[in-house]
Amino acid sequence: AIILLYYNPLLQYMTNYRLNLTLITANIVHHVTNLDEFILSDIP
Predict the structure, then answer these.
(1) What is the CA radius of gyration of the chain?
(2) Could you tell me which residues come within 8 angstroms of residue 4 by beta carbon, excluding any fewer than 6 positions away?
(3) Which among 22, 25, 20 is positioned nearest to 12, based on CA atoms?
């Protein structure tokens, strides 16, 4: 599988795209969570 990934640019691109999408989603969730904590901490 690793050899196939190495020799197949399209498959490598798709894997990178999926990985990036996962990282971006995790980043957004992290920011939303931080924003939620910030808003909650701002309420007296």
Answers:
(1) 18
(2) 11
(3) 20
